[in-house]
Amino acid sequence: MDAARRAHGDRGAALVEFAFVMPVLAMFLFGILSAGMAWNQNLSLAHGARVAARYAATLPTRNYSSMDDYLDAVSSRLLANVEGNLDSGVTGRVACVAYVHPNGSTTLDQTRRRSETSSGVTRDGSTCFTDDQGADDTRVQIMVERSATFETGLWSKTVTLHQQVVYRYEVTNGL
């Protein structure tokens, strides 16, 4: 009889426990969802950078009238393959494409970089980043970057997603 009376007094305990646990569980699940979306964006950046670098490594520069036209074509391929993760409204957006030639002196065989951010496109005779390739290697560099935010409901953290790829330029005069 006493046990039945005690059980009757615990009637709302499960509801109170649920009220304490639910906000923590919701923040945890929301954080996992937010982190998963950022991870997906990072994978998209990596995929787009690899596709664009492979395209650039096999694209003859002689098909273009200038190195800037060549870099524009590669950049278009890059932006088409990142699944909208580098659209013009994306925060912290950077898309850099560089053709690195160790001793190029002609219009189509020179080190040249095209960098695109939210504020516009810049072009110069440098590289996107320092790589560990040999000084005599002709190569293509692709670097992409954007901001992503982790949200949990109580706090948020902005991180920078960054991917960079280097491919050896494979086109020779015989192709």
Question: How would you characterize this protein structure?
Answer:
The chain is built from three helices and five strands; from the N terminus they run H-H-H-E-E-E-E-E. The chain is an alpha+beta fold and 175 residues long. Strand 4 (139-151) and strand 5 (156-168) form a beta hairpin. It starts with a helix and ends in a 7-residue tail after the last strand. The protein has one domain. The chain has a five-stranded antiparallel β-sheet with strand order 3-2-1-4-5, with helices on one face. Helix 2 (13-58) packs antiparallel against helix 3.
Provide a concise account of the structure shown.
This protein is of the alpha+beta class. It is built from 3 helices and 5 strands; from the N terminus they run αααβββββ. β4 (139-151) and β5 (156-168) form a beta hairpin.
**Strand count, sense and closure of the main sheet?**
5 strands, antiparallel
Spatial sequence of strands, sheet with the most strands:
3-2-1-4-5
Mean pLDDT: 89
Strand content: 25-35%
The overall strand count is 5
**Low-pLDDT residue spans:** none
Order of helices and strands: HHHEEEEE
CA-to-CA gap between the ends? 94 Å
Tally of contiguous helical segments: 3
Described by the principal axes of the CA atoms, the overall outline is rod-shaped
Keywords:
175 residues; alpha+beta; five-stranded antiparallel beta sheet
Walk me through the topology.
Blueprint: H1 2-9, H2 13-58, H3 67-80, E1 94-100, E2 112-117, E3 120-124, E4 139-151, E5 156-168
Antiparallel strand pairs: 1-2, 1-4, 2-3, 4-5
Helix pairs in contact: 2-3
